[in-house]
């Protein structure tokens, strides 16, 4: 299977999960704005996963779940039971629909205003900080409850997903270093061999 990614993006979460799962895959660098890539994902975004099916899979959270489900021995998915499955689903939804979008005005302020002036773009960027902080504080609480893991005290797809987005706070006025639980989580994740491999390989 082929994972389409771009450096620094949320697609790296899928790459880390593929490594953790011991999957047989190829990582393909994509130019997400290109016409060629739009034929792979009409939404012009990474990640996309091609498993040789009728169409390419898209949406990071869904792809991560697929990786976990297709490699059950790697125990990257939820624990047994309806409520446990709900909790992972809830956490993945939080990451995909609260944490991730909180960054959009920061990275792409021009999409959130019709005023093209520098001052307007700066204001939009700065408006992102409060939503990012709100989501980071929620993640901080999840990690405290999970003993340093995002989901139920053990490694899961949620760790990979949270890790790549937390990195985006690096150059913000309030970076991940200012959240004690997240800082410990980042220390553990950056020491992980698969994470180190992916973070190096994505630069190539
Ligand atoms: N809803 C999609 C969003 C994916 C997404 O926004 N990916 C970013 C990288 S983190 C991207 O490709 N952005 C390109 C763009 O917005 O032009 C998902 O969760 O997979």
Automatic annotation (TrEMBL):
<dbReference type="InterPro" id="IPR004045">
    <property type="entry name" value="Glutathione_S-Trfase_N"/>
</dbReference>
<dbReference type="Pfam" id="PF14497">
    <property type="entry name" value="GST_C_3"/>
</dbReference>
<dbReference type="InterPro" id="IPR010987">
    <property type="entry name" value="Glutathione-S-Trfase_C-like"/>
</dbReference>
<dbReference type="InterPro" id="IPR036282">
    <property type="entry name" value="Glutathione-S-Trfase_C_sf"/>
</dbReference>
<feature type="domain" description="GST C-terminal">
    <location>
        <begin position="81"/>
        <end position="204"/>
    </location>
</feature>
<dbReference type="InterPro" id="IPR036249">
    <property type="entry name" value="Thioredoxin-like_sf"/>
</dbReference>
<dbReference type="InterPro" id="IPR040079">
    <property type="entry name" value="Glutathione_S-Trfase"/>
</dbReference>
<dbReference type="Pfam" id="PF02798">
    <property type="entry name" value="GST_N"/>
</dbReference>
<dbReference type="InterPro" id="IPR004046">
    <property type="entry name" value="GST_C"/>
</dbReference>
<feature type="domain" description="GST N-terminal">
    <location>
        <begin position="1"/>
        <end position="75"/>
    </location>
</feature>
<protein>
    <submittedName>
        <fullName>Glutathione S-transferase N-terminal domain protein</fullName>
    </submittedName>
</protein>
